[in-house]
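In this section we walk through a basic example: taking a raw amino acid sequence and producing a predicted 3D structure, encoded as C-alpha cells. The instruction is simple. Fold the sequence below.
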Amino acid sequence: QVQLVESGGGSVQAGGSLRLSCAASGDRFSNYDLGWFRQAPGKEREVVARITGSGTRSYHSDSVKGRFTISRNNAKNTVYLQMNSLEAEDTAVYYCAARRVYLSEWAYWGQGTQVTVSS
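The resulting C-alpha cell sequence is shown next.
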C-alpha cells in the first residue's frame, strides 16, 4: 500500500503557473504508476496525466497537452504536475492516485488539492 499527500494548490490568474506535488509513503514507490486526476464542480472526475513506475512513459490528456507536464522523482517518492498557461477551465480539485504496475485499478488516492484559476 501507499499513502499519498498532495500539495501546491492555490489560486492563480489565467496564464499563470502552479506546480503540484504528491508525496508517497509506504510501499516501494517505483512499483506504482502515478496519475493526476481532477474534478470540477458538477463534472465527473477526469484523468489529467499519468506516468509509469519507471518514469519512462507518460500520458497527458488533450485538454492539457502542451501546458501541463507530469514527472516523478523515485528517489524522493514524489510525483509532480507542472501546470503552465492555466485557464479558468482548469479550476478543479486535483487528486494524485497510484496503481500497482500492470494493474488497471487506481487503488490509492490522496485527499485532493484545490486549484482555482481566475480569468
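Looking at the output, two observations stand out. The CA atoms of residues 37 and 73 lie 19 Å apart. The chain has a mean pLDDT of 97. In the next section we compare this with other chains.
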